[in-house]
Amino acid sequence: MRTRLVAGNWKMHTTVREAHDLAAGVRDRLAAADGADVVVCPPFTALAEVGRTLAGSPIELGAQDVHWESHGAFTGEISAPMLWDLGCTYVIVGHSERRHLLGEDDETVRRKVAAALAHELIPILCVGESLEERDGGRTERVVQTQVRIATLDVPPDQAGQLVIAYEPVWAIGTGRPATGAEAGRVAGLLRGWLREWFGEAAEAIRILYGGSVTPETIGEFAAQPEVDGALVGGASLDADAFARIVWAVATKDSSGAP
To answer: Is residue 207 a contact partner of residue 166, using CB atoms and an 8 Å limit?
Structure first.
């Protein structure tokens, strides 16, 4: 049995003070949550403060990106050892906003996945197709290529540590989520490919859905047998909304109530 997972991506939001307040709100609302792992990913500037705020709680700390080298002359970048030192256990890799707005390609993502695993961080590998690719019938080819290249350096004995977030680009921040059936279909394809590449280890890999996830839409995604949770964007900036999503994933109860 895979433990379900909900990750909150705060993106470029929150000052240190705001991050503290949001983390405290999430911590207090989920003190009794059971049935799902929870991770929040604040901006780099707030990692230390959020880590202190969450200390002693079951909520884990994640980062939004990582460089593939452990140190060096890379102005403005953050390495995996730096994140580990701050208490991070997860890191988002290959988010569509970094791919499409900042030019990250599949090769860059591959190097970042390998760096995360080499330094005991769990990568949340993001994959997904654009609207043009979807309308052109290329969803399967695009997603398979992204996952295959990103995991080329992952040895089978580490494959089970991976988390893969299917986030159709056309659904992110648009208020237009995929249907549960669509997400479940792609998650099933992902599981099949992962079995081909990693054998039994694929059964431990968690597959999340991300893309305009809200308390109102999470139920249909959580009900899909191959969807193990959610990568949450905007709704993770509201402690009540995020807690409702966690409860829905943990219990498969679409009401989102404990």
So the answer is: yes
pTM of the model: 0.95
**153 token code pair:** 């350096």
Contact assessment for residue 154 and residue 162, using Cβ atoms and an 8 Å cutoff: yes
- Ranges in the chain, pLDDT < 70: 173-174, 177, 253-258
Structural domains in the chain, sorted by start:
4-251 (3.20.20.70)
Residue 60 has phi, psi (to 5 degrees) of: -100, 160
Task: Give per-residue pLDDT as tens, 208-248.
Answer: 999 889 999 999 999 999 999 999 999 999 999 999 999 99
Residues 247 and 253: beta-carbon distance below 8 Å: yes
For the annotated catalytic residues, the residue numbers are: 95, 167
Could you tell me the CA-to-CA distances from 179 to 32, 217, 256 in Å, in that order? Answer: 30, 9, 18
| Phi, psi dihedrals of residue 233, rounded to the nearest 5° | -95, -105
Q: Which two tokens stand for residue 143?
A: 């997603």
Closest CA to 173 of 225, 128, 111, 143: 128
